[in-house]
Amino acid sequence: MAEEDLIRIRHGAIMYLWNMENGSPSGFLLTCWKPSNSLPERMHGQSIQKLFGYYGPMQQGEKQMRKAFKYRLYPNQTTEKRLSFVLTRCRELYNAALSERKDAYQLHQRSSCLVNPETGVVVAATMVANMRVRHVSYYEQKRDLVEIKQLREDYQEIASHVLQDVLMRLKRAFDNFFRRLAQGEHPGFPRFQGRARYDSFMYPDGAGWKLLVEEQGKKIKGTLHLTKIGQIKVKLHRPLEGRIKTVTIKREVDQWFVIFSCEVEASEKLELGYEDVGIDLGVTHLATLSNGEMIEHPRHYRKAQKTLEKRQQALSHQKKGSHRRERAKRRIGKAHRKIARQRQDFHHKHSRQLVNRYQIIVFEDIHIGNLTRRPKPKQDENGKSVPNGAAAKGGLNKSILDAGWGAFVGMCSVKAAWAGRTLIKVNPQFTSQVCSGCGQVRTKDLSERWHTCDCGTELDRDVNAAINILARGKQVLARKEPTSGTA
Ligand SMILES: [Zn+2]
Predict the structure, then answer these.
(1) Is the model's pLDDT at 60 over the cut of 90?
(2) Pairing with 436, which of 137, 166, 174, 480 sits 20 to 30 Å away (CA)?
(3) 440 CB-near residues (< 8 Å, 6+ apart)
């Protein structure tokens, strides 16, 4: 290939060279990846470490722990406009950076199977190996921010650490994607973010904001100052604790919130509990405990769900681009918000109760559980008569239930860590089929809600499963203990 036959196109960090011989690009790929030590001077040494420090994983078991405090913001017209402006720009940046990474990723894939038509030799694959094509990195994109700011003046109005955090988010999305690929899963490619999905931006350190708290008698007045945005009233409905590490501004439909992530001293652990529990998550009941107690799905779900359906229907009658349609959309957003808040309250309440009462809490690992669980609601809908109202609740939106389980287990595990409780997740396979009394396998149809066994065990199906989950959890812990003892 002669030098003049090639046209260089800079695309983010990857340079690719088109072979123009036949007038059409046949796509020979080369990289111009800069060595990693060519980071700008000011990024060296301490500042890199500092940057990493902010994103480092929370060390559990240490005295310092992170706690989030969320407060309502009351921006005026001007500041609200500016907040929206920042959010829109951040989303734009996220999508642009995503598209750059996506192109690089696809290019990488394509190049690895290119064949030179003349020789029949796989050219690009060896090139990939030799030239060490990598994915567009966070640092590469971060360096481009300087250029972006020169080209687009509106970006100068945004704190640079906020923009860096946008890229960091994207990095995390890709890290997760590649990690899951490596684990043999089939994750979805990181998605472009619409207006409704991208709803927050973050100040990852102490720069760009200031919180002023004034005490006026009994009243506590809070004001959040944000550079280039202005001051916004904060309603401090509960006291802030610890040292603020990050500040996140979040939009929920038409309301704004600030979330302070604070480093606080770990509080006193709860006294040792004498009860342990296994928990089966399900469609019929949110949770069935191994002692036979149940946590039902919050009843208001279905009412809120109905409202949501009605509003979605109303939206479908509105003309595209009309004001009424916008209003209808906002109403749907509000319905979603209401469901989310109700669910959160409910989960907080019940996870608190569980953690206060039990020392060892065993859940099924939902990621594994999902595979076996999938047909459950479907079969209920297929007209099989199911007692305990399973059929009625089977109609509940599956995604809502899914989200519900994950969030619930998440809250339990955070609270458990604070309180010094043990929470583990076990493989849920066959937990509903094995008899908790004698260990024999009793295959059951999904519609069979009762467990009967020759050994005399008579139990609700889910309680039987919960007992098995607890037993499995204790097995896992027993296996772990000797190793941790010698270590
Ligand atoms: Zn039995």
Answers:
(1) no
(2) 480
(3) 434, 453, 454, 455
